[in-house]
Fold this protein.
Amino acid sequence: MFAYVKDGQLIKVSNEDNVEWEGVTIPHVSLLTPAERHAAGIYDFVHATQVPAYHRAGATTYTIDNVAGTVTEAAEHIPLPLEDVVATRKGELAAYRYQIETGGVTVGGSQVATDRESQAMIAGAKLFSDMNPAALVDWKTATGWVQIDAATITAIANAVGAHVQACFSAERAHSAALDALSTVEGVAAYDITTGWPV
């Protein structure tokens, strides 16, 4: 990326390698030496640093260094309003809770799926078992078919229910902690990944 400077003023910025400049077609700008570019008023362009998370870019300024042959872009980094940052972090928190909630739980040494469909199926099996306590339920696992009795279904349902509830309790606690923070920097730095069920 090159900056085109005339009479101490930035005229344009371009990444094109063949340009019209000062009435002359300059082919292969990138092949010119820095001294040749500098003599023609073509300076190296230095982009502004990336806008940090939870900030927006404000006014942009350009500093021309005629000795180094550079034009440096700088953008003001303005923090977003606190309530907007809190809302964004709560969205991230909800997504993280969903990831943990649906990531499965271990029951009796076996991994049990806890995605929303599996939660509904387990709840349905528990209801059926409550109404038919002597029945064995055919259940398809990741490793094949098994038959489970009412006690096993109850253990699975309780474990899944406790896991899901623990996830929502953790989200609630983190949400309250975010609400209690008073600065954008504090909200941005807050760690939402602690205190979750394993």
In short: The first helix runs from residue 34 to 39. The longest strand covers residues 55-65. The CA atoms of residues 169 and 196 lie 9 Å apart.
